[in-house]
Specification:
CATH superfamily: Winged helix-like DNA-binding domain superfamily/Winged helix DNA-binding domain
CATH architecture: Orthogonal Bundle
Number of helices: 4
Structural class: alpha+beta
Number of strands: 3
Largest sheet: 3 strands, antiparallel
Strand content: 15-25%
Helix content: 55-70%
Radius of gyration: 24 Å
Number of domains: 1
CATH class: Mainly Alpha
C-alpha cells in the first residue's frame, strides 16, 4: 500500500483543524489539487482510515438500509496519530539538516576570527 504524500498530510491537517469539514471547504482550500482531490480523500478514508465521512442511515419498512453520505469529513484517531507522527518526523528532519549547517557556520566564523587575530598581531 502506498504511503501518504505531503499533500495528503496537508489535506489531513486541514480536516483535523476543525471538528468537521465539508467537501466544499476541502475543494475550496485545495482547488489547485482539484484533479486529484477525489482520489486523495478516497485514499485517506477507505485505504488508510485516517478520515471518516458522516453518514445517515434510514431503514425502510421492508428492512432495507439506505446510507446517505453527507459530504462532511472528520479526522479519525488513527489519522490524528499519523498526522502527529508526520509532523514530528518533519521537525526532526529539519533539525537534522540545520544543526550541521549551524555548526559549520560557527566553525567558519571562529576560523575567520582566529585568522583575523593572527593577521592583526
Amino acid at each position: 500500500m502506498p504511503e501518504p504524500t505531503a499533500i495528503d498530510y496537508k489535506v489531513l491537517g486541514f480536516i483535523g483543524s476543525s471538528v468537521s469539514v465539508s467537501r466544499a471547504q476541502i475543494d475550496k482550500k485545495f482547488k489547485k489539487y482539484s484533479p486529484s482531490i477525489d482520489a486523495r480523500i478516497s485514499f485517506l478514508s477507505y485505504d488508510m482510515g485516517y478520515i471518516a465521512e458522516d453518514t445517515t442511515q434510514r431503514i425502510s419498512g421492508a428492512g432495507d438500509i439506505t446510507v446517505t453520505h453527507l459530504g462532511i469529513y472528520r479526522i479519525t484517531e488513527p489519522g490524528v496519530r499519523a498526522l502527529q507522527d508526520y509532523r514530528r518526523q518533519k521537525r526532526e528532519n529539519t533539525r537534522r539538516f540545520w544543526i550541521p549547517v549551524a555548526i559549520s557556520i560557527i566553525a567558519v566564523i571562529i576560523s575567520a576570527c582566529s585568522l583575523y587575530v593572527a593577521i592583526c598581531k
